[in-house]
Write a structure and sequence with these properties.
4-stranded mixed beta sheet, elongated, disordered C terminus
């Protein structure tokens, strides 16, 4: 290419110049001349560090990949004579996949003379549609392809990223109410307990005082070495009174 449109390392438009001159200008700055728009007329080149350019390009591609909505189609297969146990087992898997944001394809496989009883396959797919109506919607109505009849369900809520199924958050434990405070008996300080009077004892009445005797009737005990007083008789009392 004889001429290119050149953009400087600072984003300045340098205009259209000869290719050799653009390469020389890039080498003088210690950078590379990188073609960024090959389909333009003339092609657009930029003077930048090629290693840094590759890093930024890869980083943008990774960010765009994270924002992509990746939806896969998972299949559950039935037979016209599938019993209830097998049907419920596969139906639960289909519900799980729809909840994770994937599409589900329900297929009825006919073998041999079973192809003459297509109504059995239609009834089974109608049952599957009723069981999955809360998580998915029918994207393709039942139709036959060879010896197979299939129905496609699309999730009502798509996955936001392609990182696979998200695990449900662990439930938080219930918040317990604080236990009521129990009143503890107040202990009396030892000094105050000792100051309290003890319970009164049963008081016994004092004995009555003895009656005073007259001096004449008070017995006297003679001291040793002294004669004992004569006992009073009735005749002395009469003489005294007379």
């Amino acid at each position: 290419m004889p001429e290119v449109r050149v953009i400087g390392d600072d984003g300045e438009q340098l205009g259209i110049m000869n290719t050799r001159e653009a390469v020389r200008l890039a080498r003088e700055k210690g950078l590379d001349l990188v073609e960024v728009a090959a389909t333009a007329e003339p092609p657009v080149c930029r003077i930048i560090d090629f290693g840094k350019f590759q890093y930024e390009t890869k980083k943008k591609a990774n960010e765009a990949k994270k924002k992509q909505v990746v939806i896969t189609v998972k299949e559950v297969k039935f037979r016209p004579g599938t019993d209830d146990h097998d049907y419920n087992f596969k139906m639960r898997h289909a519900r799980q996949w729809l909840g994770e944001g994937d599409k589900v394809k329900g297929t009825i496989f006919f073998r041999g003379r079973e192809i003459t009883h297509r109504e059995l396959g239609s009834q089974l797919l109608e049952r599957l549609e009723k069981d999955l109506t809360d998580l998915g919607e029918v994207e393709a109505r039942p139709r036959m392809e060879g010896n197979q009849m299939f129905l496609v369900f699309a999730p009502k809520k798509h996955k936001t990223s392609g990182s696979g199924p998200q695990k449900p958050a662990a439930p938080k434990p219930p918040r317990q109410a604080p236990a009521p405070a129990t009143e503890q008996p107040q202990q009396q300080p030892p000094a105050q307990a000792a100051a309290q009077p003890s319970p009164p004892e049963s008081a016994t009445p004092p004995p009555p005082p003895a009656a005073a005797l007259p001096e004449s009737q008070v017995p006297t005990t003679p001291q040793p070495g002294q004669p004992s007083a004569p006992a009073a008789t009735g005749t002395e009392q009469d003489e005294h009174t007379s």
